[in-house]
Structure formats: structure tokens, C-alpha cells
Amino acid sequence: MRTPIHTPEAPKPLGPYSQGMIAAPFVYTAEQLGLKLDGTMPPDIETQTENSINHIRAILNVGGCTLADVVSVTVYISDLSNFAALDDVYSKRFPKPYPARSIIQTAFPLNTALMAMNAVAVQP
To answer: What are the tens digits of pLDDT across the range 73-122?
Structure first.
């Protein structure tokens, strides 16, 4: 059984997808850009990373999970020279033991996006 997740604490989807999906015991989040809730994009990687993690946390909460339940994260970054700043925020927000993680350098449809990430969590 699949249950879509929708929360006002994360940006509305920009296309035909759900913010997240519960497929018990897993909770999957869609890729979350670092947008503010008003739809604007902060100019720096640190704030975008904070926002992205906040959106993931809100989506996971609807699915009964926290950041401590995350088992896998995929990080998308437009410029690897920003990785250290992103990693600093990431390491302070996700608890140890850190989830498995993949990093992919990519371009974004929104030119001001510097990063995005999605997560998979296991319901406790």
C-alpha cells in the first residue's frame, strides 16, 4: 500500500509528484530544493541545505519518522566547490550514525538552485 505525503511545511511540488510516499515500513521523500516556503531561493549553499533538510524533516514527520530514522540520502549539487559548506550543515543536522549517502553533481532547472536532496527512512 502506498500513501502520498503532503505537508504545508515543505514547498508544493513543482510537477506531477508527491512530496513523499509511505510504503511501510519505508518513507521516501521527493528531491527537496533549498527553497523558502514562499518559493524564493536563498543565494547561499548553507541556507539552501538547511531549508532542504527542514523540508525532508517535515515530510518524514508526516510519515512517522525523524532524521534519526533516515537510512539513505542522495545529495545533488551544482558545483562540487560548494561541497564542504553543504557537508558542514549536513553533518550538524543528521545524527550519527550517518545515513548512507550518494553525491551527484548536476544542473538544476532553477538556475539559482545550488543543491537538493532526497531521503529514505524506516519507520520506527
So the answer is: 999 999 999 999 999 999 999 999 999 999 999 998 878 999 999 999 99
CB atoms within 10 A of CB 122: 13
Residue in the structure block whose three cell numbers are 539559482: 112
The CA–CA distances, whole Å, from 10 to 29, 43, 88, 96 equal 11, 18, 22, 24
CB 60 within 8 A of CB 69: yes
Angle (CA) 57 38 85, round 5°: 55
Give the strand pairing for 3-5 and 20-23.
antiparallel
Domains of the chain, with CATH numbers?
Answer: 3-122 (3.30.1330.40)
- Amino acid (1-letter code) at residue 68: A
Q: Would you say 63 and 91 are in contact if contact means Cβ atoms under 8 Å apart?
A: no
As a residue count, the chain comes to: 124
pTM to 2 decimals?
0.96
